[in-house]
Design brief:
The chain is mostly helical and about 80 residues long. It has 3 helices and no strands. About 55% of the residues lie in helices and about 0% in strands.
Amino acid sequence: MKKKRIGAPVPIRALSKLWKIMRLSVFLLLLAVAQTFATTSYSQQTRLTVKMQDAKLIDVISKIEDQSEFFFLFN
């Protein structure tokens, strides 16, 4: 009768596959957490109403700056 070794070495191929699965799982978990925080950010909840006809671009940008916390730099 042969004795079974409890601490038998694990093949390198199995460890490589396990490592890839673990990396993918951690990546997907971090992606899900980042998406959760992105849905509650300020820029997703901000609503602006700008109704202007035949207006200059500078006037439109000024109106947006007045209604929000956004700031535009242009030349």
